[in-house]
Amino acid sequence: MSSDHRKDWDTYFMDIAFMVSTRSQCPRRHVGAVLVQGKKLLGTAYNGAPMGVPDCLEAGCMIAEDYELVVTEGVEEMVKKQRCIRTIHAEQNLLLFTDRIDREGSTVYVTDEPCWTCANMLANSGITEIVYHRTYPKDSRKVSLMMAQKGISFRQLEQYEPPRETLMSVEN
Ligand SMILES: [Zn+2]
Ligand SMILES: [Zn+2]
After folding, report:
1. Whole-model pTM?
2. Cβ < 5 A residues, ion ligand 1
3. What's a Gene Ontology MF term here (predicted)?
4. Nearest by Cα to 46 from 32, 36, 34, 35
5. 9-47+87-157 — its CATH code?
6. Contact between 31 and 111 (Cβ < 8 Å)
C-alpha cells in the first residue's frame, strides 16, 4: 500500500480503542480508552470490575439510579439517570494503570464521550487532549463546558467508522 492508503493517526488510535473495548464484559456499554504521547501508545484500558471480582456477565449489572437537577433556559427539571456501577470506567482504569509523568501533555482516545466523573478525573490527570467517537448525551453539556474552562482540547471523531467486528448491541 502506498502511504496515501495509510490510516491517519486519529483513525489508527481510535481503532485500537475499539479493539480494546471488546474486552469489556458489561452488557450495557463497551468502552475502550488508550493513552497516546506523541505517536506512542502508552496504555490501554476498558470498563470492568476490579481484577478477580465477578464482572457484569457473571454477576449481572449493578444498576443505580440517581437524579440530577438540570436547568434548561431557566427551567429546572429533575432528570433520572440509570447506570451500571459495577465497573470501573475505562478512563479511570487508564489512569490507574499509567503514570502521571507519562500523561503530561498526552492524548486520550476513548470510544465514548466521558461521563462527568471520568471527565473530572481526566481533567486533573495531566492529559491535554481527549478524542472520542460516540456521544454520551447525559453528561455532554457540562463535560464540554468543563473541558473548555480547563483548556483541554475535546473533540469528537464524527465521520469515523469503527471496525465492524468491534461493535456489539448494548442495552440502554
Ligand atoms: Zn454492567
Ligand atoms: Zn465514566
Report:
1. 0.89
2. 26, 28, 56, 61, 84, 86
3. dCMP deaminase activity
4. 32
5. 3.40.140.10
6. yes
